[in-house]
What does this fold into?
Amino acid sequence: EKGMYPYYMLKEIDEQPAVLRRIVQQYQNSAGELEIPNELKQAVEAADRIHIVACGTSYHAGWLGKHFLEKMAGIPTEVHIASEFSYNPPLIKGNPLFVFISQSGETADSRQVLVKVKEWGYPTLTITNVQGSTLSREANHTLLLHAGPEIAVASTKAYTAQISVLAILAATLSEEKDFALIHELGIVANAMDSIIAEKEQIAELAEAYLTDKRSAFYIGRGLDYYVSMEAALKLKEISYVQTEGFAAGELKHGTIALIEEGTPVIALITQAENASHTRGNIEEVRSRGAHTCVCVMEGLQQESDQLVLPAVHPMLTPLLAVVPTQLLAYYATLQRGFDVDKPRNLAKSVTVE
Ligand code: F6R
It folds into this structure.
């Protein structure tokens, strides 16, 4: 039930801090440590490479899974668009593990790959929000998102839940115990609360940047690029503003030709190591007329920046940076007069290939 909320999407955005806290609880053992089922742990430890397979928002979460699995657990990881898998299957050597990320657990494109991988005899894990869903039943292992039902077509809390569960998976395989993920996720949940409490500010940004626009860009580097892709999908699928998420440094290799007077370019800056480079890219588009909006993590901000996010662990910034982009999509859609929860041409669960 959406209760006092005008739309499910807003309710589901608001639920994210609580979902994050619930996930931490669900994956904690009696000693207060993060834990995954032992058989799954053994299966992942036996793998010398992980192949993540997913669609849409879940695919975007997959890129963060790659980052965590490689950085925390040291396992080489590839990310595949499910519908492309059969045309360009990975070269498989050794002992791979296939990980399917799917909010619904019913997506036909992902299931088709799961069926094939099972025929090949490789172990499989599904990360899903729906217990007993097709992809969960058919895989060897399941990790649940514990996000509660997601009703709005545009996925929000499932994305942050997927990232959190992927981080937990990677952390439980990590040799280094110095990264206190439970503590850091708690900081993220509190930071999410404070962004959500100030959503009016984001409604104003949506009005200032997006109401009468036909196109927009999100740019970022590294983890901020991954979030830019998801932010762009969110904005385009419900507000119908044609939006691209771009690697900030890649824009000048062609796409910058699309920048006109007033084109909104929203830059995400959460990583100290690439902040100055992304700032350079912001200048490049600003000097060509772009209406730039900077969403930056505390500590990296400049006076002219539009939105400052509370500081969180550098590896977990995507969990936080995506929240204002979800709210921007929500408010832009409201202001443009469209149905937030039921965008045209889309279904919540895509059961055709
Ligand atoms: C976008 C969105 C879709 C889904 C995609 C995969 O907001 O919801 O891109 O992420 O259709 O769906 P699942 O995760 O159910 O496999």
